[in-house]
Design a protein that fits this description.
By secondary structure, the chain is of the alpha/beta class. It has a single domain (about 55-60, about 80-265), classed as TIM Barrel (Alpha-Beta Barrel), CATH 3.20.20.370. Helices cover about 35% and strands about 15% of the residues. It contains eight helices and ten strands. Strands 2, 3, 4, 7, 8, 9 and 10 form a seven-stranded mixed sheet that branches. A hairpin with a 2-residue loop joins strand 7 (about 215-220) and strand 8 (about 220). Helix 6 packs across helix 7 (about 195-205).
Length: about 270
């Protein structure tokens, strides 16, 4: 290629400098967006709490309580103690905990909502229901969602023999490990059904807490008012076409009206 000389070369150099001054390095652009409060990896820049139907921002939860270090076992380990059954967390922190069951609802916009609001949620998955969509739950897990055990086949545990209950719980532990890379500490029995055999089987499968719920969102609304530490079940809605994200917003609004926000259940249990 022939080189430019004289005035033509000067003009070309000036145009090149002007273009460089106007261009911005992509990394620098990301830094500017972060400084302006825009998350650089958001899928829809500029969306905020108003986009999701909230009237004010969702307050950040307080720092979670610290956990004492686990004590090493001395001698031969004894049989694991039955896990506690909880429907709330005894805390003075102004927080509630959002939980979802089964895994039938796989709305990609719910993933956007969790990402943009940085919403802590816990998903109790049943393999026979969630299996076609484990990729969806892997995306939620990557955003910080907790994964809990809800059995392989959604059978009511109470009254089943030990071998059957253990197969349902341990089998789902293994399945979640294989599909999502997590072996949950938390277990929710289908229908809230459990008996002493359930607790023994859960302990033998590595479960540290059996999680029920203090209040649930149903098509008629919340079953009771929210209080600090409540575990909320955002119930699968089989009777209406209200999307999961809209039902979640109903709980968030109710929490804000009580001066509460949402925290991650696994940080407290």
């Amino acid at each position: 290629m022939r080189r430019l000389r004289g005035p033509a070369a000067v003009l070309a150099s000036a145009l090149l400098l002007a273009g460089c001054a106007q261009s911005v390095d992509p990394i620098e652009r990301l830094g500017k967006k972060a400084a302006e409060g825009v998350h650089p990896h958001a899928t829809a820049p500029g969306r905020d709490y108003r986009h999701w139907g909230l009237t004010r921002p969702l307050a950040r939860p307080p720092a979670p309580p610290s956990r004492p270090p686990a004590r090493p076992l001395a001698g031969h380990p004894a049989a694991p103690a039955p896990p506690p059954v909880i429907d709330h967390v005894p805390t003075r922190d102004p927080v509630v905990f959002l939980t979802y069951d089964d895994g039938a609802e796989r709305d990609p916009r719910f993933v956007d909502m969790v990402r943009e609001l940085r919403l802590p949620v816990t998903l109790f998955l049943t393999d026979s229901i969630a299996a076609p969509g484990y990729g969806h739950f892997a995306r939620l897990r990557a955003l910080g969602a907790g994964i809990g055990n809800h059995t392989l086949d959604h059978r009511a545990p109470a009254g089943l023999p030990y071998a059957g209950q253990r197969a349902e719980i341990c089998g789902q532990q293994d399945r979640l490990r294989a599909r999502l890379g997590v072996r949950p500490r938390l277990f929710r029995p289908p229908y809230g059904s459990y008996d002493p055999t359930t607790l023994r089987a859960a302990a033998d499968c590595g479960i540290s807490a059996v999680v029920l719920w203090r209040t649930a969102l149903t098509p008629a609304g919340l079953t009771r008012g929210l209080g600090a530490g409540d575990i909320v079940l955002v119930d699968p809605d089989e009777s209406t076409d209200v999307p999961l994200r809209e039902r979640t917003v109903r709980v968030l609004r109710a929490a804000q009206e009580r001066g509460l926000t949402v925290a991650r259940l696994e940080d407290y249990v």
